[in-house]
Amino acid sequence: MIDIYRTQTMVTALELIPPKPVFLKNRYFNTTDEDIFTTEDVLVDYKDEYQRKMAPCVIPMKGGIPVARTGYRTERLTPPYVAPERVLTVDQLNKRQFGETLFSKRKPAEREAAILKKDLTELSDMIDMREEYMAAKTLFDNGYELRHYADEYGGNKYEEFTIHFYEEAENPSVYTPAVSWDDGGEQFYQDLRVMVRSLKRRGIPVADLLMGENVAVELFKNDFLLKLLDNRRVQIGELAPKEMPNGATSYGKIIVDGTVLEMISYTLQYTDEQNKVQNLVPVDSIALTAPDTGRMLYGAVTQMEETDRKFHSYTAKRVPHVVSNVKDSIRTLTEKSRPLAVPKVKNSTISAKVLF
Q: Is 62 a domain residue?
C-alpha cells in the first residue's frame, strides 16, 4: 500500500498537480533544471550589462590578437524560507467536505487522501503568490523586502530579509517623468522614447510595456496617442485588446523608435500580512522589460523525517513535510520552498511612476 504521507510520494504528487497560472513569474522568471540547487544557498550569475565589443584589426600574416572573455559576477545567496502549513484533526475528518452530498457516507479515512490533495494544492497556490510578489518587486523595485515570522503570520516577531540587485544608494533603474501622464499630451511618448533608448544603448532587450490599471485607463484616452494610432500614413501601433494567458490583458502594440512594445496590463491582487488587499503591479506605474528577463531559483530544503528520525535534503520547488501528534490525533502538513527571483542582467528593467 502506498504511504501517501511519505515525502517523496507527496513531492511526486505535487509535480502532477497543474500549477496555478501566474503571469509575471511565467513570462519573466522561468525556471530550468539548472535553477534548482542541491544546497540551501544558490549561486546567482549575472552580467553587469551586455557588452558589444569590436573585434581587433590585425596586420596580415601576424596571426591574431587575444581578447578577454566576457566577464560576469557570481553571488552566493540564501533564498527566503517559505513554509505555510495546515493542521488536520479528527473533527475535520468527520465533517462533510466541500462538494460532498448532504448525507455523505464517506468514512474519515476515505476523506484523508482528498483533504491531503486539497491542502497540497492550496498551500502550493500560496507559495505561487509569494513568488509572484517577488517577481513584481524585482521588476518594479529592483529587489524586495520580506519578513521571516517567528510564530504568528503578520505578528510583531520577525526578521527582515532584504535583497537589492544594485550597489548604489538608490535604485538606478527608476525613471522620473517631468509631467504626469494624465495631462492628455505627448509627454508620455517622449518618456517612453528616453526609457527605450536607455535600454537599447546597453544592448538590453525591451519588448513589453507593463502597466498598472490606472495607467491603462489614462493612456487609452490620451488624445495624442489616439491621433498617432489614427494616422494612416504612419504605422505607430494598434489597439487590439485581448486576454492573455494567466490573467493579463494585452491592449495592442505601440512602436517607439522602431521598437515594438506590447502594452500589457496586469490587475491581479494579493492579501498581505496585515490582511490588506494590494496590487502586484502598482496602479500608477509602468515597467519596460522583456520576456525571460530573470530567473526563479530554488534552494534545497533539509528536514527531519518521522520515518527514520534522520535529516534528508530535497531538491525540488515544493517540499511537503508531515508531523504527527499521535496523543492528540493531530497531523500537521507544511509545504516548504526556498525561491529567489533574480534578474539575468543588472538593471535590465526600467520602472517609473507616471501618474502623480
A: no
